[in-house]
């Protein structure tokens, strides 16, 4: 898949400058053909060459890599992009963090899909001194104190005294997420802490963040982290 036109390569070098963003291109077999330095470092490697030709499962382990590969296969088969997907990434160098992932299919001149390109950008740390953070303080406190309740955007709108558009705009400015994504992250972060630091039964962890159905919690947790709650707990232990 490497293009003949050498003018392409400075584009790759530009992505090397982004320490908060993972960039990659994979071929139609889901194997890396282009990566940036950030992904290389987070995989605990010294050279990009160690990633080229490998699959996510070969680099990150089957438990986590399998979900990324399934995501790639769907893009390769359908051409439907992954847009603004909230994900918790875990790397071999033990770096763990939330990011927003976007993936697009790559086409040749005949409009056949020949690969997938994607970026995963780290979520920014919210600036608590920012004016918008102060204006959201009542909403933030409400969510933190009511994680056991199913999310209710209308209740948050009333708490903030804002329309849905106004609330979403302020949340995006502070957290880089939609209101729904931010609430989901808060709930899953709490669940992650309980899974890693306690022996609370998983069904209770699910109830503690507003899921009456453990299977629904498991699906959502795996979608965001790549692990089932049980597998994540075992990994942390």
Q: How are the SSEs placed, and which strands pair?
A:
Blueprint: H1 9-16, E1 21-27, E2 32-35, H2 37-42, H3 56-60, H4 62-78, E3 82-90, E4 96-107, E5 113-122, H5 131-135, H6 137-145, H7 153-160, H8 164-175, H9 179-197, H10 202-208, H11 214-225, H12 229-236
Helix pairs in contact: 6-7, 9-12
Keywords summarizing the entry:
237 residues, alpha+beta, 18% strand, five-stranded antiparallel beta sheet
Describe the structure.
The protein contains twelve helices and five strands. The chain has helices at 9-16, 37-42, 56-60, 62-78, 131-135, 137-145, 153-160, 164-175, 179-197, 202-208, 214-225, 229-236, and strands at 21-27, 32-35, 82-90, 96-107, 113-122. It has a five-stranded antiparallel beta sheet with strand order 2-1-5-4-3, sandwiched between helices. Helix 9 crosses helix 12 (229-236). The longest helix is centred in the C-terminal third of the chain and has 19 residues, at 179-197. The chain is globular, with a radius of gyration of 20 Å. The mean pLDDT is 90.
Query: Termini separation (Å)?
Result: 41 Å
Nearest-integer average pLDDT: 90
Number of strands: 5
In the predicted model, the low-confidence regions spanning at least 5 consecutive residues are: none
Helix fraction by DSSP (H/I, runs of at least 4): 40-55%
Secondary-structure class: alpha+beta
Order of helices and strands: HEEHHHEEEHHHHHHHH
- Treating each run of at least 4 consecutive H or I residues as one helix, how many helices? 12
**Largest beta-sheet characterization:** 5 strands, antiparallel
């Amino acid at each position: 898949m490497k293009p003949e036109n050498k003018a392409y390569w400075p584009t790759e070098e530009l992505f090397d400058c982004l320490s908060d963003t993972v960039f990659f291109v994979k071929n139609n077999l889901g194997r890396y053909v282009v990566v940036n330095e950030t992904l290389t470092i987070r995989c605990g490697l010294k050279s990009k060459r160690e990633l080229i030709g490998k699959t996510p499962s070969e680099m990150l382990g089957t438990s986590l890599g399998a979900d990324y590969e399934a995501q790639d296969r769907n893009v390769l088969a359908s051409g439907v992009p992954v847009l603004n997907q909230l994900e918790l990434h875990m790397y071999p160098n033990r770096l763990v963090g939330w990011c927003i992932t976007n993936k697009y299919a790559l086409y040749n001149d005949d409009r056949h899909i020949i690969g997938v390109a994607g970026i995963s950008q780290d979520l920014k740390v919210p600036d608590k001194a920012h004016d918008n953070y102060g204006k959201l303080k009542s909403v933030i406190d409400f969510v933190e104190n009511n994680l056991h309740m199913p999310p209710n955007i209308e209740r948050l709108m009333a708490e903030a005294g804002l329309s849905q558009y106004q609330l979403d705009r302020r949340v995006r400015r502070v957290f880089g997420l939609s209101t729904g994504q931010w609430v989901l992250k808060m709930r899953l972060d709490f669940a992650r802490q309980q899974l890693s630091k306690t022996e609370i039964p998983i069904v209770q962890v699910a109830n503690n963040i507003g899921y009456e159905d453990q299977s629904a919690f498991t699906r959502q947790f795996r979608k965001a982290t790549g692990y089932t709650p049980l597998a994540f707990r075992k990994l942390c232990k």
